[in-house]
Amino acid sequence: MKKKILVVVANYYQQISAKLLTDTKKILKLKKIKPKIVYVPGIFEIPIIVSKLQSRFDGFIVLGCVIKGQTPHFEFICNSTFTTLSYFSIKKKKPVGNGIITCLNMKQAKLRASKKGKEATNAVLEIFKVV
Fold it and tell me: Which domains does the chain have, with CATH numbers?
């Protein structure tokens, strides 16, 4: 049985999101998996989409980027989003590959974008092998 995967892309930093998504799509294409892709404005909107569409998919890959500014906003947004996604994954027993980059600046984000989409995608595919 083919697994159905939802990819949720936070498009706030479009250049970074595009790189993450390109790598994710390459890996899924090799596995002959055609994902459903949904775009949201930022990472804070990712959990509601995952939650709302959870019954239609076997696994989720979330992609995006948050760059720390000069206020605590970064910590609140990241903590809330990551905690919610972890809770969802455990409660629904469905894998969520976390491809959300958290960085101090754009230079770091560009460097990490070359790996994070691949890592998140491969994590979900590995979980499918176990369960």
Answer: 5-130 (3.40.50.960)
